From TrEMBL:
Top-level taxonomy: Bacteria, Bacillati, Actinomycetota, Actinomycetes, Micromonosporales
Keywords: Methyltransferase, Transferase
Protein name: SAM-dependent methyltransferase
SUPFAM superfamilies documented for this protein: S-adenosyl-L-methionine-dependent methyltransferases (SSF53335)
GO molecular function: S-adenosylmethionine-dependent methyltransferase activity
Gene Ontology BP term (one): methylation
InterPro entries: Methyltransf_11, Methyltransf_Superfamily, SAM-dependent_MTases_sf
Residue stretches making up the Methyltransferase type domain: 67-162
Amino acid sequence: MTESFDAVAYNRAAWDREVANGNEWTRPAGREVIDRARAGDWSVVLIGYRSVPRGWFPAELSGVEVLCLASGGGQQGPVLAAAGAAVTVLDNSPRQLDRDREVATRDGLAVRTVLGDMRDLSAFPDASFDVVFNPVSTVFCPELAPVWRDSFRVLRPGGILMTGFLNPDVFIFDVEALDERGELVVRHPLPFSSLDLPDDERERSYGTGPIEYSHSLAEQIGGQLAAGFTLTHFDEAPHHADATARYLPGYFATRAVRP
Ligand SMILES: C[S@@+](CC[C@H](N)C(=O)[O-])C[C@H]1O[C@@H](n2cnc3c(N)ncnc32)[C@H](O)[C@@H]1O
């Protein structure tokens, strides 16, 4: 792959394929989950299968304007809408957004969907959301500074940014050894991108899946601080699906506020 590689175009098609292949992050919430959320019993995940602490959200969700950022798949957006929030889902994959519309139609929810790149939130005016909710997806985005800058801009003062992301250390390991034999073979210096691999190895290790970027903690946490956010909470969890889980947290999550 070349220097002029278009990550957004490639990953759009790749995530559309993930929907067709039934990737677990593309399977919409069931009707019973939505019914429970309507009754006030709801939870959403930012990292793996771990519920976000209720206290990370505003005490009252009714009428709160939430931007589910790169969060298609018919999961968090419809659940938050059923819990009373006014939800917009922005995602780069048309098929992922179809999932949100499917649930909204099935269960009579108002969910606005917007096709776009998480680095460009120009579809939204300044100070138009109370919460930006971003489950693990920055791993598919080549640069993060614009994501934090625009998230800050579209949040109202006092607004909350929640993001989940991969611990970059999981990228130092050889993926074939990890996935096929559960072995932790240290191989890649950071930063790493699956674009760095020869085409045949990337195909064996990642199949037709999206391109991934390790990103540093400086880009993730330092980037939020540089955009003007104040960090209020931090969480971590083992990766839900790989052998690194025995040794280190594969995921981090942050909650930050626009002062
Ligand atoms: C792992 S899924 C996250 C959504 C899922 N509901 C969840 O809980 O994990 C990653 C999502 O990020 C989206 N995505 C990847 N790159 C993006 C970009 N540059 N801009 C917007 N969305 C992007 C994908 O289309 C996909 O829906």
